[in-house]
Write a structure and sequence with these properties.
Elements (H helix, E strand, L loop, with lengths): L19 H16 L16 E4 L2 E5 L12 H14 L7 H5 L3 H12 L4 E5 L2 H12 L5 E5 L4 H10 L2 E5 L4 H10 L6 E6 L11 H10 L3 E5 L14 H5 L7 E5 L9 E5 L1 H10 L1 H4 L6 H16 L2 H20 L10 E5 L3 H13 L2 E2 L2 E2 L10 E5 L6 H17 L4
Parallel strand pairs: 2-11, 4-5, 4-6, 6-7, 7-8
Antiparallel strand pairs: 1-2, 3-9, 8-9, 10-13, 12-13
Helix pairs in contact: 2-12, 4-12, 5-6, 13-15
Length: 410
């Protein structure tokens, strides 16, 4: 038998290299992205997340993140994460179905189910995995999915992976949805899936009307509430609470990495659905369990959401201030009223020039391009948080005024 010491390790020069023609092909595609204004690069952040950050070596007011309630660096969350690390270690090095299901998992799942007024919950490592796992597990080629045109990419990919008939209706167009539901009958399952609060447009799905349509046409409902949890509703329970349909959505997914300041994602629904996902959702089955520190931080975040409602109040006060200021400057501002505010530009190069003009003036707001948004709807996406001061927002408004005039947008 050959021992590990006898195993030959190839020298660096012997490591197989990518074929030159493949490298050249990839480089041509990258050059094409650059010529279209669609090339992306990673920016370096050198500070904690907060209302101000240091990015690419420049200090800037941060209007590009999703830490809506300012919990990512909250002392209680950091303390909970540190204590969990000291107790459980940095990681569990196993999937939950093997030996990774430490006791913080059922604690957080029970807490999330109660918060969302659902029977049960299941944690996933990312929001992308949650949507992919739920749809591909519950829906197959015998079924039909009705999906909003602006749904998140993870929903689209989950529908594709399921091989179901995939019917897209124009954004928030309930008349078209009703016609599709009437026409597309199926002996299998039928699912309406939407985002709760749309991350690029900042508007909210009309969940009350969608639930009525689903009940009329005997259809399941699924909502991704990644940008609504902690933010919308009287107690921060999300889009369903704001729409008055909390507890009437069949399946809800969402991220724990935005307003809750942590990481990972959840699914809530009927207990049987959750048990089925444990057995059939491949992104859940074949992924290592999340670090204990993450779970402990989110448990603490849910307590903060319930115990500190003033954070939501500051968020909405700041949002109203920002929206009013943008309108006064001359920007066309969507009427949704939420903390996500898109400023439409319409061209990728111009959107990125707007982004740079802002960064040069001490404000970071990301330019958003295809495929994150449809071609021709490129934009700057502003996100307001509870942590911003009025001085932060006024400084940002001055920069937005100057940058908008520099690119002749206003």
């Amino acid at each position: 038998m050959t021992s590990a010491q006898d195993t030959k390790i190839p020298a660096a020069c012997e490591v197989p290299q990518l074929r030159d023609d493949l490298v050249e092909s990839l480089q041509r595609e990258l050059n094409g992205l650059k010529s279209e204004g669609l090339h992306r690069r990673l920016r370096q952040v050198d500070t904690l997340q907060g209302p101000r950050i240091r990015i690419d070596g420049k200090d800037a007011i941060h209007l590009a993140g999703s830490d809506y309630l300012g919990l990512a660096c909250h002392p209680r969350l950091k303390r909970a994460a540190c204590e969990a690390t000291m107790r459980y270690g940095c990681g569990v090095a196993a999937a939950r179905l093997i030996s990774g299901n430490h006791d913080l998992y059922p604690q957080l799942e029970t807490r999330l189910a109660r918060f969302k007024q659902a029977e049960a919950a299941l944690l996933f490592s990312t929001g992308y995995q949650a949507n992919l796992g739920v749809i591909s597990a519950l829906i197959d080629s015998h079924d039909v999915v009705f999906s909003d045109a602006l749904n998140h990419a993870s929903i689209v990919d989950g529908c594709r992976l399921s091989r179901a008939r995939f019917k897209i209706f124009p954004h928030n167009d309930l008349d078209t949805l009703a016609r599709l539901l009437e026409r597309e009958r199926s002996t299998g399952r039928r699912l309406i899936v939407v985002d709760g609060l749309y991350s690029m447009d900042g508007d909210v799905a009309p969940l009350a009307q969608i639930v009525k349509l689903a009940e009329r046409y005997d259809c399941l409902t699924m909502v991704d509430d990644s940008h609504g949890i902690g933010v919308l509703g009287e107690t921060g329970r999300g889009t369903a609470e704001a729409a008055g349909v909390l507890g009437r959505i069949d399946i809800e997914t969402g991220s724990l990495a935005k307003a809750l300041g942590g990481f990972g994602a959840y699914v809530v629904g009927r207990r049987t659905v959750i048990e089925y996902l444990v057995n059939r959702a491949r992104p859940f089955i074949f992924t290592c369990a999340m670090p204990p520190a993450v779970l402990a931080a989110v448990l603490e975040a849910l307590d903060v959401v319930e115990q500190e409602p003033e954070r939501r109040q500051r968020l909405w006060d700041n949002t109203r201030h920002m929206r009013a200021g943008l309108h006064e400057i001359g920007f066309e501002v969507s009427p949704s009223g939420t903390q996500i505010i898109p400023l439409m530009v319409g061209e990728p190069e111009r959107a990125m020039r707007f982004c740079q003009e802002l960064l040069d003036r001490g404000v970071f707001a990301q330019g958003i391009r295809y495929p994150s948004v449809p071609r021709g709807t490129e934009r700057i996406r502003l996100t307001v948080t509870a942590s911003h001061s009025k001085a932060d927002l006024d400084t940002a408004l001055t920069a937005l005024d100057e940058a908008g005039r520099a690119i002749q947008l206003i």
